[in-house]
């Protein structure tokens, strides 16, 4: 019940933020931007990856691309993307619905500087048709994220 864990997270930590569920899929950056009427760059995509033995989440602007050199220098090793089953096991969220909210166990979360260009971003919310609208700094504060510069 990934969507339910996200709803519970917001009910407890930020009851003023509404989880938005759409009829249309928002599983990709382009679909999410269309479904929520924002620019693709405003979609906050969450990447689940492993560096060494550490599994972590990196939240970036929807149009940003990870820079392997910056990731290695900042996060301590070469990033490896997890496959769909590994992502689901680590986050309880399906690919296309991955977010830093409502996780079954704490994971390190990093927010890329690319998000700071916006007053509001739209990350997924635990399902391929769910999202929230949130200020980047508030998102980082809610999930205890560290700000990093890991994108091109």
Q: Can you give a write-up of this model?
A:
The chain is α/β, with parallel strands linked by helices and 152 residues long. Helices cover 29% and strands 22% of the residues. The chain is built from five helices and eight strands, in the order H-E-H-E-E-H-E-H-E-E-E-H-E. Strands 2, 3, 4, 5, 6 and 8 form a six-stranded mixed β-sheet that branches. It is globular and about 40 Å long.
Brief rundown of the structure:
With 152 residues, the protein is α/β, with parallel strands linked by helices. 29% of the residues lie in helices and 22% in strands.
Poorly predicted runs of 5 or more residues: none
| Global geometry | globular
Helix/strand structural class: alpha/beta
Binned, the helix content reads 25-40%
Features:
six-stranded mixed beta sheet; single chain; 29% helix; alpha/beta; 152 residues
Which secondary structure elements does this structure contain, and how are they paired or packed?
Layout: H1 2-13, E1 20-21, H2 29-36, E2 43-51, E3 54-61, H3 68-75, E4 79-81, H4 84-91, E5 109-112, E6 122-123, E7 130-131, H5 136-143, E8 146-148
